[in-house]
Amino acid sequence: MDVARRWAATLADTKGVSLPQEQLEELLLGVAQDAVRTEPDHEPARERFSKLYSASPIGIALADTDGKIVEANTALGKLLGCRPSALRGRHIPDLGSADHDVTRLRNGLSQLMAHGRQTQQERLLLDHSEEGTLWVDVTLADLPGDRPGSTYPVLMVADANEIHLLQEQLLHQNVHDALTGLPNSAAFGNTLETALAGAGGEQVALVYLDVDGFKVINDGLGAGVGDQVLRGVATKLKAVFTGRHNGSVARLSGDGFAVLLRGELTSLQVIALVEQALEELVEPIYLGGHGIGVSASAGIVVRPATDGGPEDLLRAAEIALHRAKEAGKAQWMLFDPELDARDRGRYQLGAVIAGALENGEFSLVYQPTVKLANPDQLAAVNAGLRWTHPEKGELDSDEFYPLAQITGMTIPLGRWLLAESLAATARWRNRFGEAAPDVCVRLPKRLAIDPDLVLLVKEQLDRHSLPAQALRLCTDRESVLDPRGEVLDSFAVLADLGAQLVLTISGSADLELIPQHSLPVRHVILSGAVIDALADGEDEADVRHLCQLVSRAKELKLRIGAEGVRSHEQAERLRRYGVLAARGSFIADSATGDEVDELIERHAH
């Protein structure tokens, strides 16, 4: 009775909650072992074990030393969809559904009988008589037999089907995109690593695709339509790539997708598939009465699987995609290692612009603009930037300004250029008085559209006690028409202050921006083909074009100059047709520091 009372108390003291499977297993084994060991009156203990075994919520099968089931409780029969008696005579391993389930049960039974080693809880599939298969958690343990030293195996089974399916669902959600059902970026990364690790001598191809102008669809037709478009894109990409060259498609983020191909493939084969995909995407899908087709840009990289790791492959595909978009979108671009090597050098240069500015590696470089009627007279001095790089030497602005635009350093460089140019102008005025030339600063686009341009200019003029008339600010068509900026308002205020505004033009369309937008421009500078055309002669059509520009500039009461003039003969032709001033190598190469003071002094005398 002591044994009965002790186990009854243990089973009853659950504090109102269901006991975990492991705890129930321990309790049941304890009861069974006590029932066997209790002497001399062990029949009541066996009876208590029998009742507990029958009422247990865990499926239990008792087996002989060979693993053949001799008894199964009601819970196990219910779990496997059969009568408990139908399980008698079956070997425990035979309950497994697949070969690996059978093997795991057989190995567990062997370890138990040979070494008395109880199996840790394992999740595997058992056969269900009606529903096919069932996920369960199983434990194999042993019970002492009637004879000293003898043991018998016992199988304990708990239903884990719902838990397993829920875990599978959560796992699927973790590695799949909820909108399209495609693998997400995390899953794609794992797929890529696995593919490269086991690809051996195979070729791999990675394709990055990005929907062009998706924001227009999303904002114009609504996020709901945008989501349906993305589902359509996913469906079309799967149709093109899945099943070919072990193709797998994933949605990385937003409107970005990736495709991985591997096996015996060539660049031409991959390009053909990409072109097919781009054609499919253009075909409209009809949503809410709208026929919506999309274009996409694609970056492609094809290489042996052993050439670099996942990071190298991902970076190469991303670079190729950026180049496709920069080239005009709606097209593909194949990764070019040689071009990439050159770009790496450029990007490394762009990355250190901020430090170079702080370390004093930038300086001003000047080019004089002279009056063509009297080249000894300076009309203005144009100020620009030069970078003295410790390794690459002297770098002109066209070599680093595009990089500054990418790295966000355009405004700091432009501010420094303006401040230093006006400081130099103040020095010239103190030294040369009325003979000091105006300074002309070409505004980088990002600075021209900056809303603080007027404040910056006024601060620098006031700091150096300069009249605004001493400063010429030059811009171009691209800056004037940029929708992000406030160029027109800024120029109007600067003109009111007295600054002289200059527009670089290459043809009639540029010139007509001045009346169209009421630009307070006083000077225009001819640049590019219209000037180059008169470098070696006077073609009739080129001369007519130049004369039309000069005539229209006079109508608008503008002073007209030219840049990029290479010879005195070219300068003379321009003078004859009405160009008033020019700069270029015909008069002088660039000057820096003290050189510009000497240049101004020569022209002043």
Automatic annotation (TrEMBL):
Residues 346-604 form the EAL domain. SMART domains: EAL (SM00052), GGDEF (SM00267), PAS (SM00091). It comes from the Bacteria. Gene3D superfamilies: 3.30.70.270, EAL domain (3.20.20.450), PAS domain (3.30.450.20). Residues 45-90 form the PAS domain. SUPFAM superfamilies: EAL domain-like, Nucleotide cyclase, PYP-like sensor domain (PAS domain). PROSITE patterns: EAL (PS50883), GGDEF (PS50887), PAS (PS50112). Residues 202-337 form the GGDEF domain. InterPro entries: Biofilm_reg_signaling, EAL_dom, EAL_sf, GGDEF_dom, Nucleotide_cyclase, PAS, PAS-like_dom_sf, PAS_4. This is GGDEF domain-containing protein. It comes from Amycolatopsis thailandensis.
